[in-house]
Design goal:
Layout lengths: L2 E7 L3 H12 L7 E6 L4 H13 L5 E5 L4 H9 L6 E5 L3 E3 L3 H11 L5 E8 L8 H7 L4 H20 L3 H8 L15 E3 L7 E5 H4 L15 H9 L4 E12 L9 H19 L5 H18 L5 H14 L2 H6 L5 H13 L1
Helix pairs in contact: 1-2, 7-11, 10-11, 10-12, 10-14, 11-12, 12-14
């Protein structure tokens, strides 16, 4: 079974020189690489891609697009010809065996009940590119700390203030019987996929595409796509497919927008996929209050203060999101986002 790779990128030429070789040198190589670029300097991004592929040729297409993560992914999706498509971020660093582990799950799924497979987050970058990755940028101490405490914090949150995404994702695990062979592949059902390690059956993700209501720097567009798949299919995590996310230390959105989107984007996804009265809907306001309280504790710098302000404003928009008719939800979301970030 073949797979294509689609990478949406913007102003990140240097990290492409690190991430792409790890993808094309997999034991199971992609049939095609599609890079969808919205960089201010197109030539720099194109040179980076062509430069790394000169030493290891593969069929590829470099496509220009207007900015916007969901828009760029849809542009790439329209060019996919293989039955499986992988959507790594431009800073996703694949360890050896990623492609084999993911594709093994698809190949064993002869009934087609699995619509998407994600890799597992690695805590360490691949050793062969660690130096090169650090020359591009080093992962911030804050991000390293967040990775270290994420599991412990998740356990506490799950007991006291469960994430509405978790509640909805688990409610969909029964949409199809889980294949009995999943443990043999060290694969498990997951509540959703994180964007830097996503893959899909092409025909399944094409039914919905990526929601372009998430304009610009998207938040939770990966969760929304996961939930679209989970209407009819299972979403599985392949634990042997280990991927390191070499996050840039710079923020891609200002604090006000980031804070508002963290609240509103979650409410939008939950309102779109969870029916009124569901556990996820009932938890959205309480969970949002918890996030705002977290942001209130991080107001020692300008970004943190702006993020808190945006999230606080968004709390007042949750009722409008909850009451919105399904056909008007995206319009209500965009209007409320504009109000909270003006």
């Amino acid at each position: 079974m073949d797979y294509d790779i689609v990478i949406a990128t913007r102003n990140r030429a240097s990290i492409l020189e690190v991430s792409i070789p790890l993808m094309v040198k997999q034991g199971l190589r992609p049939r095609r690489l599609i890079v969808v670029d919205s960089s201010d300097d197109e030539k720099a991004a194109r040179r980076a891609v062509e430069g790394v592929l000169a030493a290891d040729p593969i069929d590829f297409e470099f496509v220009r697009s207007e900015p916007g993560l969901t828009r760029q992914r849809n542009v790439g999706l329209r060019r996919v010809a293989s039955p499986v498509v992988m959507f790594p971020d431009d800073d996703s660093l694949w360890l050896p065996g990623v492609a084999e582990a993911i594709m093994r799950v698809y190949e064993r799924d002869e009934q087609g009940v699995i619509g998407a497979v994600c890799g597992a987050q690695s805590m360490e970058a691949p050793s062969e590119v660690l130096g090169a990755a650090r020359r591009v940028h080093d992962v911030s101490r804050a991000d390293k700390f967040r990775l270290q405490i994420a599991r412990r914090r998740y356990q506490v949150e799950s007991a006291l203030v469960p994430d509405p995404f978790v509640l909805h994702g688990r409610s969909r695990w029964g949409v199809q019987p889980a294949p009995a062979w999943l443990p043999e592949e060290n694969a498990v059902l997951v509540e959703w996929m994180t964007g830097f390690r996503m893959s899909f059956r092409t025909d399944v993700i094409r039914r919905s595409g990526f929601d372009e209501a998430f304009a610009g720097y998207a938040v939770f567009e990966d969760v929304e796509a996961s939930f679209q798949v989970m209407k009819t299919n299972l979403v599985v995590g392949a634990r042997r497919a280990r991927i390191f996310h070499h996050r840039a230390p710079s923020k891609r959105a200002n604090g006000l927008t980031m804070g508002a989107r963290q609240i509103l984007d979650r409410a939008y996804v939950v309102s779109r996929h969870s029916p009124p009265g569901s556990a996820a809907r009932r938890m959205i306001y309480r969970y949002s209050q918890y996030k705002v309280a977290q942001y209130a504790l991080a107001c020692h710098e300008s970004f943190g203060r702006q993020r808190f302000r945006g999230a606080w404003r968004a709390l007042g928009s949750l009722d409008a999101m909850d009451r919105a008719k399904p056909e008007l939800l995206s319009q209500v979301y965009k209007r409320q986002l504009g109000i909270c970030t003006e």
